[in-house]
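Q: Can someone sanity-check these two? First one:
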Amino acid sequence: MPARTESHRPALDAAESTRHAAQLYRALGHVARLSIALQLARAPRMCAHVLATHCHLRELTVKRHLRTLQRLGAVHASKRGDCTLYALDPQVLSLLGPWLTQPSTPDDPASC
């Protein structure tokens, strides 16, 4: 029987998928990471500087939270010249759907 290659590996099994979902929800449980994710959901690509401005956080803080979200596969980065643009993974976007359809309130994490 031939060895399986990475491209033929089956999708995450149920236990792995559940663990990954729990890690993702735990990460989005932090108000700064949820705010960043919601901003990325509303504007498909943003650099850390713009995210920091929108979320009223220091750029270094935003970059630290973006690294956490990247490790989980929730955010993808692409270099454009000197700037790194961040985008939300479509699967995470679908998880955030309910928050995106509600109007923003002052206490809403999306309002940063």
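And here is the second, same format, sequence then tokens:
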Amino acid sequence: MFLSKFDRNNLSMRKSIFLLFAFYVILSGCTKTNNDVVSYGLSKNYSGVNNVSANTGGAFSFTKITISPNPIKIGTASKLIATATGNNLTYKWSTSHGDLFGTGAAIYYSDSCIGNYTITCTVSDGTHSVTITIPISVSN
């Protein structure tokens, strides 16, 4: 079966659009920020790293975030545990890059891009809140 000139041009345009889209996805993906050699399988405890407010009375405290492993390899996951005490605690997690899975005091982080990023957790008891931000490195 023969294609008309219009159908051939339309097919050619679709191929061009697909190739441009694929090229864009590849170029806009992850970029390596440094060539540092890092070791894996380590567990780190962070306490008092950036933005830690003073605990103001009561039984509420948020003292540290433990992350294991850090650094991580692309496509693997690190477990994060927020160590906090108090009643009716809420946990709000965020990251500068990557994905967070789960809720509460223990969650997981994974990323598909090489780089150095941050993870932030804010713990609140409804009256007081404390925020801790920690570094995480992702490599291949």
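A (reply): Looked at the second one. The chain has two domains: 1-30, 44-139. Strands lie at 44-46, 61-68, 72-73, 77-85, 90-95, 99-101, 106-110, 115-124, 129-139.
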